[in-house]
Amino acid sequence: MKFVLASDGSRGDVEPCVAVGRELLRRGHEVRIAVPPNLVGFVESAGVAAVAYGLDTRLLMQARRNLAGSTRNLWRIRDLIRLWRESWEFRNQCWREISTTLASLANEADLLLTGRVFEDAAANVAECQDIPLATLHYFPVRPNGQLLAFLPAPLARSAMMMKGWLAWRATKKLEEAQRRELGLPKATGPSARRIADRGSLEIQAYDTICFPGLAAEWVKWNGRKPPQRPFVGPLTMELPTDTDDELASWIAAGTPPIFFGFGSMPVESPADTIDMIAGACTELGARALVGAGWSDFSSVPHFEHVMVVGAVNHAAIFPNCRAVVHHGGAGTTAAGLRAGIPTLILWWAGDQPYWAAAVKRLKVGTARRFSATTRESLVADLRRVLAPQYVARAREIATRMAKPAESVAAAADLVEDFARLRRAG
Length: 425
Known about the structure:
The chain has 425 residues and is α/β, with parallel strands linked by helices. The protein has helices at 11-26, 40-45, 57-70, 77-105, 119-129, 153-182, 191-197, 214-217, 219-222, 244-252, 270-284, 314-317, 330-339, 352-362, 375-385, 388-398, 404-424; strands at residues 2-6, 30-35, 50-52, 111-114, 133-137, 201-204, 258-261, 288-291, 306-309, 323-326, 343-347, 365-369.
């Protein structure tokens, strides 16, 4: 069969899609993957051919960072308007390019699998070409009473529905333009509702233990044949890096370090961040291993007890660390939980606060906003999560997490079965 996979965003957004694509390729299917141009090399390093679509996601991250920074100076109205227009035009251009590329790639495909970012644009292409659509969600994006645990369930569902409606209204003109181009009628509601109404497969790529009660709430979706919102667990490839051996030697030469990683989040001042980490770890008598991610740590001060690296193989490194401190990305959170070590999430935005709340609810760690973090708060938070009860709880939760290979195989099974069922129908 021919599968077309598409995922925009950072590596954390793209890797789950690529993990499924690589498994489908191993099973003998034809697989074509579209990702942002800055992540084509990453996909190809995993052994899968990739096509560039959309724009460099690092530019979008920077645009969002500039816009977020400008909101702290609301009196600079002109700058705020300019940055908002720049961010909107970036999204507009991305949408157009994604639609064009997918319309070509998906021709005669047996199924189109899309990640969460620009899911609506992919759904329109699938509808136009009358092919089955599958989506990958790495946290529960459809209305439910579990994600916003601080609200009563009915109110949480209503809030998520309202957020989805507002998001659709914000992008309505973009979507209408795409649908006209594809020869589709005007949409009368949010894409999430249309995706569900088409009976699309919505794979939930996370562990239900992180959102207690969700499986029971969605039993009406998964009591169907085939299930519409099946849970498979986090999807990752656990790829090795060139520094695995070097890091293993460094870790073995001393006490287990605390890992600090920031993923695709742009750290405003790497030097200040390293200074904060080094000071906190000195006070705790700990070593620090820092994953730079997309930030430039090349000119930061050197400390004997701090090692800075680029890419990190979380599956290989985390089990040898005392704790993990990170931005709250879904993939990094899952890797920490699977490793059985306490977590401290210093979050920025997006879905990160949800994972911060999940970690606290599981009692395997704590969290706070990155911008509110100081050396003193970092020391206090780390002392807390390194306490015996958090260490023991983290080890317990690790035994209840889905195994990586099983998650990927389950997702590939679902995609294959769904494509066969729809083709037979």
